[in-house]
Structures are given as C-alpha cells and as structure tokens.
Write a structure and sequence with these properties.
Structural class: alpha+beta
Radius of gyration: 14 Å
Order of helices and strands: EHHEEH
Strand content: 15-25%
Distance between the termini: 52 Å
Strand order of the largest sheet: 1-3-2
Number of strands: 3
Largest sheet: 3 strands, antiparallel
Helix content: 40-55%
Number of domains: 1
Length: 67
C-alpha cells in the first residue's frame, strides 16, 4: 500500500532553486512560502512552494497589465 504523503525540501535547497540567499529568505519570511519544522529542521512543503510560485506569477501578471 502506497500512501500519498506530502513531500518537502529544506530552506537551503529552496533558496538555491530560486536564486534567493537564505538571509533574504529569513529577512523577507512574510513573503516566502510557509516553513514547518520536521525533525528539528525547517522544511517547505512542495504544495506551499507551488502556491508561492503561483502567487509570484499572479503578481508579475498584475504589474505587467498595470504598466
């Protein structure tokens, strides 16, 4: 039996993927995807990262149409 469990990644890997420094991630945490603590490490669920990317796209679209 296979369980569908959410997957996650470290903040370090998230930052590497998106070209964001970890310092910026923590300084701008209110604008970043939700991070949860799992086993003593902060992790970002893939679903939260996907939602963050969609929000970034929506903001870019809104800026483009406003210009």
């Amino acid at each position: 039996m296979t369980l569908n469990r959410p997957t996650s990644d470290s903040i370090e890997h998230f930052c590497e993927r998106h070209g964001i420094s970890e310092a910026t991630f923590y300084r701008r945490r209110d604008l970043m995807p939700r991070a949860i603590k799992i086993g003593g490490q902060l992790r970002i669920l893939d679903s939260d990262e996907a939602a963050w990317i969609e929000a970034q796209q929506a903001q870019a679209d809104a800026r483009r149409t406003a210009a």
